[in-house]
Specification:
Two copies of one chain form a homodimer.
Chain A (H helix, E strand, L loop, with lengths): L17 E2 L9 H7 L9 H18 L5 E5 L3 H12 L5 E6 L2 H12 L3 E6 L8 H9 L5 E5 L1 E2 L4 E2 L3 H9 L3 E5 L18 E3 L13 E5 L1 H8 L12 H8 L11 H17 L1 H22 L14 E5 L6 H12 L1 E2 L1 E2 L8 E5 L7 H17 L8 H12 L1
Parallel strand pairs in A: 1-12, 3-4, 3-5, 5-8, 8-9
Antiparallel strand pairs in A: 2-10, 6-7, 9-10, 11-14, 13-14
Amino acid sequence: MTRIDPTSFRDINPGERLLMGPGPSDVPARVLQALAAPCIGHLDPYFLATMNETQQLLRHLFQTGNALTMPVSATGSAGMEACFVNLVECGDEVVVAVNGVFGTRMCDIVTRIGGKLIRVDGEWGRAIDPAAVEKAVKSCTPKVVAVVHAETSTGACTPLEEISRIAHAAGALFLVDCVTSLGGMDVPIDALAVDAAYSGTQKCISCPPGLSPVTFSPEAIKALERRKHPVVSWYLDLGMVRDYWGNERKYHHTAPVNMVYAIREALRIIAEEGLETRFARHRLNHRALVAGIEAMGLAMLVPEKERLPMLNAVRIPEGVNDARVRKALLTDFAIEIGGGLGQFAGKVWRVGLMGHSCRRKNVFLFLAALETVLKAEGFKARPGAIEAATAVYAAAG
Amino acid sequence: MTRIDPTSFRDINPGERLLMGPGPSDVPARVLQALAAPCIGHLDPYFLATMNETQQLLRHLFQTGNALTMPVSATGSAGMEACFVNLVECGDEVVVAVNGVFGTRMCDIVTRIGGKLIRVDGEWGRAIDPAAVEKAVKSCTPKVVAVVHAETSTGACTPLEEISRIAHAAGALFLVDCVTSLGGMDVPIDALAVDAAYSGTQKCISCPPGLSPVTFSPEAIKALERRKHPVVSWYLDLGMVRDYWGNERKYHHTAPVNMVYAIREALRIIAEEGLETRFARHRLNHRALVAGIEAMGLAMLVPEKERLPMLNAVRIPEGVNDARVRKALLTDFAIEIGGGLGQFAGKVWRVGLMGHSCRRKNVFLFLAALETVLKAEGFKARPGAIEAATAVYAAAG
């Protein structure tokens, strides 16, 4: 069993894809180039300077002055776990709003670490109702109120202002999942008084998966410092991690050097484009995509005002085979889109317009490809999808 | 504070280093090239095939038939945490042998997750004495006996055969840290009856840091399946992670796609070289380096028979400034070596000969550079270091 023929393994050659699923999104050549720069030591002066710059760029994207702002050395789900394990101790009451897979995952984590979960269930595919959160918050003494800004499983966007107010009125910390929203829409951490937030690199930041940007407010740090027990995870203990990312430069674990090169480059591209321009680009391409989808006679899952720009859940028409359509898009057009998750498995497609993938030419190609593939499925799309999308771009000038 | 001038950030350009510290080691161009291949979806058929190949190559390196063998999506310390959080439940007795920083870290993790720690302290810089482990094991009913094969903090190698026998005689699982040894010396998981092991990518595998290869024996999986409580970490719950790496392909978290490309390539290079050839190369360069070091009049920390080939702890001579020497090596020769950790801070240098860094030309360059730098420090090295190293290579033929 330990014998192996090394010649049976070929060179890595994934070919090209257009990544229009729920992430990863297309990674710009500049980011791949940065990723492949020579690896150096995690305590090398050049790398320490790179860490500082990465933090500056991340604060810019999070729109925050939070000192503790850095990429956790693992993917977005580890960022979720990092926020909870650092802020929640055994017995702490935690209100979690759930309207999809990622809110459900938050509940799972809270329970594993012994937090007392107060769960607010909202309809999947809809925004969370702040009144339901308020009711739950008043029924307990929550240390943390947690919500998913952009539910990747459904494409629903939950506005944060009101829930932030409710959390703070109750003296709780406000914890936000912005895995899918960060880099594609406004996530102003300080203005929204968010105390802890985490994201991923592979959505609207358009960097390969592998890191999770996290930011903690001074209040969250106080909670961390006031803990009665050590954080249950050594790896994600931000009290130690920040001694490495902060001025102490105390060795904790070996940073994923090349991934930090990559996120720095991806964040630099974002800074060059400018946040407002980038967010407007996401809104515009989203509107054009939706116009095309609806012109075809397909329907969106989420009501218009609650839709995310970067993640578009499209209802699969009656009689159309989910897996076959996705396979044809991948095989014939090299386009990846996502299937539904949880209660929406087989019911919706998730079409991403994230970061570098979010471009007019991709909207056009996707609409044309989908029309072709649906035709083979026996579904006759109404004509005019491209025209409808074009009209949106024309109106935007 | 959120204003930023994007033009103030330059292109990533770390320049070249010779990485002869405790890791990361030099990454071959082929691995960097694989790392920069286009990112594709974590459920793309090509990527799933890449995962399978990565597992095959990892099993070859671990010399195991263990089905559950894959890279955890975070650095080596997360691999350590993954092994403990999956196998240890609150109240379980765990014997940990400590002869350096990484054994100490194991104890920290066991305590955080509520394990009952039985600590066996050995001298730092020496192998663990199996008799001491046996005594501890007999004093309790351990579920797990854990040991660090290659202590990166000191360069000491602990043989595993005897401790494995002791662990199994007590009915315990045998857990091994092979972060620094895997890929540079023999770590035959099945032959040694190791139940759980973790490593890192950035040592003798010569891939950038970011993943942690882990392997679990069928016995370890049984323990995982017999758990009374959920694993405290959602991210590292191998019961779920293996449903993604196994045939189910059930989505858990988004795999770090490009890092998986990279480790696959690094493992392919290892398979091409062949394990025995690679281990012999590490032994030979180690002997040459030590011959040169000792010829200069410097002393090794670890007794000859307990030394690791890939991590060489050299005592800093009286009156020589640790930081200044390392800085001069880095600045004047672009060579990175490591300082001491814990009780050896300021007392030793840690010189790595790991994976791609472990080459004759590097041994020669390092010896010459160290001699030059020590001279500037006022330490007069005895002549003949290069000659002594050359003699070792000559004798090896």
